[in-house]
Design goal:
Length: 506
Amino acid sequence: MELSPELLDRLDLSVATQRAAPAKGEFFPSRLEAEAALHDLDSYVQWVGARFRLDFEFPQAETVWVPRQRPGYRPVPHLSFLERVLFQALIDLLAQELADDIERLNLRSLAEPDEGERRAFERYPLEDNAIEFVGLADVASYYEYVDHDQLVRDIVDWTGDVDLADGIGQALTMLVGRQFGIPQGPRPSDVLADLYLSAIDRDQARRGVRAWRYNDDFLIGAAGEEHALLLLRDLETLLRGRGLVLNHEKNRFVDRETYAEWVDTLTQRLAEATIENVGLTFYGFDPEAFAAFEISDADPRAVEALFHQAMDDTEPDPYRVNVRILQQALPVLAKEYSLAPLERLEELATKWRAYARHVSLYLRELIGTDAEEEMLKAVGALLEKRDDLVPWVRGWLLDPLTRSDEAIVPDRLSQKIDEWLNGEDEPWFVRGRCALALAQRGLIPGQEAFNSIFERAPAPVRADLVAAVRLAEPRWGQEWIQALGPGEPLLQTIATWEPGDWSAVL
């Protein structure tokens, strides 16, 4: 990858490093790298700048297959923190150049988040009395099929900055390993996703179509049933011009009365427990919202009842009411240390496996409480019993074990975790969790076996492995840590942390 010296001089790597740091609850391994980078920001930025001025290439990132709500998976690249910083710096520069066009481009991702924004979007069709039918549609596997050449042309059209457009195009090809697609997970991807679809927004506006977009979800107002069908067809035509198609399993149109009922159902059911919006995103809620949320606003028993109602509802859920209730109830129940989700952990890990991250954050909040022992028993029993859990779920269930130093139960689970770490069947992001879970209990493979794992591991997981050596403190650990190379500053920083400080880091 070759970025021009002029472009590199324009990148603010210090700000990008801070902005690239994942929040608690984001994809876990890069958090350790981020903490290490922020520990000595100036030194890290100097090293990053030198690295980017070389003709550098990143190894192909591991693909993590994340379950969808419906059958199937979405690919998420397991990026190193260095890759995140580069991507963030490029998109920060793009954001500066697009600042005057945020509204015209409908770039929600560049505006300050507005509480209740999603609900306002859902009610837009109901504010126009001329709308009798509402079309609902979203783009199939949207992030996976964004065409890099078209996106580069869009950036040039709006900014006139060929260097920046070319740099972003090169970065995307490097990150995803092909000429199309943007990585799901990093927040800068949302800016590119918005920009790419803004052309569709403008096309519809010029045609006088009453249409609204939130991410890749579209709402279209129509005068009648045939009109709604035509507008959905026209939307499909516009999307195909950009290499995209609609998700035909989700496309539908309904009369105004039915649509209003769907929207009002969510509002009514949430109001029953007076749950406030806690700032959820596709990538997971922010645990910091736990502290800001006033539990006095909700009756915990009502929230538990609502949670069970959503879990037990077997009726069609066309507007994902139960999903959103589950997402909003979990942080409230975590704040209250409720055991209701724990009692249904197996169901959450299988039927609701797309939301494993939300469940893991709930489990994490029970550490250090009277419910910690019950949590460890429930998680351990499920991991030991269900060999068929998808890796994404297994990784998130292991995550609370990396943050607790209480004994793993049942005892035989420790052996299974060791097998997952040493074997080749589990993806690396799970194996990194295994290393930390064992290390919290002073367990770790022998030096030869461990070093073999380390040498094959991708960059983000190496951070977990160095942390495991510091936590377990094997007799060979100090010598092994001293052998870390000069080109691994984040790992060297992680190796300086005291095991007693790990609760704050993890």
